[in-house]
């Protein structure tokens, strides 16, 4: 039973993080919430911050942003389960910027590490976790935490609304609420009432305590539900940020310094202003915006502006940057998150194997380019439309840019055409607000060209890893991993919130130090490189590179030991984390791993435990006359409670495709301090004919009931090493550097 305090139409609850032994909830009152969809509209009543009732049914306010991952459907199902409404009665909207919608899942994920890693947690860990929600206003979608943070919150929202509606009906009938039942959006007693009939009275009758339904009664959670955004996206009627259209709207595009972080010495707008349809050229400090009658004209005019750019403060090209990263190995480790046994003594013996691996910078490359629409009104208020992963941060950044109160900013968060971590930063909304400030009274939609989108991204960092291991008697006895990379976490947080967190940089080594391999001597160090290229959070963050390093090296150790690579991993894992070992057994069975190998084919296996979810993947490749083809892939995952198996399946598949695309094609390179890759021909991805056939198995053995691992990101980390290991099996060539299209010829 969970505590639930009365909610009025102008005050909101903030649900805090779950704590051991139960759920604790802290409450804050938030007043003057701008453009709040929960403010009563015609014939609609908000019963709490997450549920609106009207004659058409129930609208669920999703506290997480929808960018294709299906989170809005999962969160709506949790509400519908408790509220007793039929699926066809449910709609979903994104919540406004409000502390009520902060993401407790970030804290839950960091505080609920698997048993095999609890001993490695720094002593300062819990204190840092306790401060996180208060410091960062975490209304953020990311870190594969959407379902984790919403599991209790959304169920309580539905249950609280249900009991309020029963109380309203009971008051009308003069009976106890316990004598009534709910079904299909109605309260049923001696007389039946629709929820819409009761909503106005129910808004003031939310009980002090509500009891959540027993999972055995669930109709939706645990099943693959039709996605609430499926019809609109399939018919082209979904409204993304880039589709925003307002009367009298102007259109703009930006062109920022390609030497990232450098200033703009000056610009000549004359060539752009001479073009038909161009209204204005606006200086933005480190770049310009051109306002025109349509987006295409704005983009062409932005390219026509003559600009004198200042230099950045990072090395001139990729080679010099990698040299700077390599130099970090000579510095004292920034972190040593794992140090089991006596690694140095073991590696002083015979039988040592060493390898170095390299990965490049990567862009997010979402299909919808960055965009935002802003409208500075005559009363000094600002309205913004921007698909973003951090609404409060974005709203406040817009307010700061225009030097107005945050309460005067209304932020709408439409669905996004992909995010992958790349829409966390408020830059698009802020630049749109600044453009709107130069044209008060006129709404302006700012759209990045694909070239600006790629060259002005906040990249996944490049990295180098050096690993050493020892084999004795066919067994691995030691492993020492070292990763050198600039810190995406420090770089991004310094930009987003004004300071970099103290202590060891965990994100640079995740996926390397925290894996369930029971080596007796296991050490993992992180060396943070001094490099100021703008960085951000890329799908699966540090796991995306460290899983490639570790799983490639584990494969090398297996071959050096004369062992089967899958069996070798199982031997290291069986006594450490049973759910992870079960996944390897499952993917062995699914892929027919132990059967005779087919001539002309190769197979590779890889594993990674990330975001609370272990994932094992096997990939098959084939040598053809047209080049190497990716033929089949098998994925076994264990997120604990799988709230929507269809969405889990889709996210695992999509995550692996994203990882394979990066492994084969992905590289952001620099020349003269500028990004070389400017469009998809330079930064390609897998296409339908080059994508393997997938089979996904979802196990639910990971932790006790209620454990929820992430699903949006964990499918990505094992993809690259599974491919590299398959290529070795096929060709005998061990790839230690990405992207792979520089070394292998793939079928187009």
Q: Average the pLDDT over all residues and give the rounded result.
A: 90
Shape: globular
The profile of the biggest β sheet is: 7 strands, mixed
Q: Share of helix among residues? A: 25-40%
Measured distance between first and last alpha carbons: 57 Å
Question: What portion of the residues fall into strands of 2 or more residues?
Answer: 15-25%
Number of helices: 19
C-alpha Rg (nearest Å): 27 Å
Strand order of the largest sheet: 14-15-12-22-19-20-21
Class from secondary-structure proportions: alpha+beta
Poorly predicted runs are 1-37, 123-131
Secondary structure tally: strands:
31
List the main descriptive attributes of the protein structure presented here:
seven-stranded mixed sheet; single chain; alpha+beta; five-stranded mixed sheet; 19 helices; 748 residues
Give me the secondary-structure topology:
Blueprint lengths: L1 E2 L14 E2 L2 E2 L20 E5 L2 E4 L2 E6 L8 H13 L6 E5 L10 H7 L13 H12 L9 H28 L7 E3 L2 E3 L3 E3 H8 L6 E2 L19 H6 L14 E7 L7 E5 L1 H4 L4 E6 L3 E6 L2 H10 L1 E4 L8 H10 L7 E6 L2 H5 L4 E8 L11 E6 L5 E4 L5 H12 L6 E4 L14 H11 L6 E4 L2 H6 L7 E10 L2 E11 L2 H10 L23 E8 L14 H18 L4 H9 L4 H14 L9 E10 L2 E12 L2 E11 L7 H21 L4 E2 L2 E2 L17 E6 L20 H13 L17
Parallel strand pairs: 6-7, 12-22, 20-21, 24-25, 28-31
Antiparallel strand pairs: 1-11, 2-3, 4-5, 5-6, 8-9, 9-10, 12-15, 13-16, 14-15, 17-25, 18-23, 19-20, 19-22, 23-24, 26-27, 27-28, 29-30
Question: How would you describe this structure to a colleague?
Answer:
This protein is 29% helix and 23% strand. The protein is an alpha+beta fold and 748 residues long. The radius of gyration is 27 Å and the shape is globular. The N and C termini lie far apart (57 Å). The model is unreliable at 1-37 and 123-131 (pLDDT under 50).
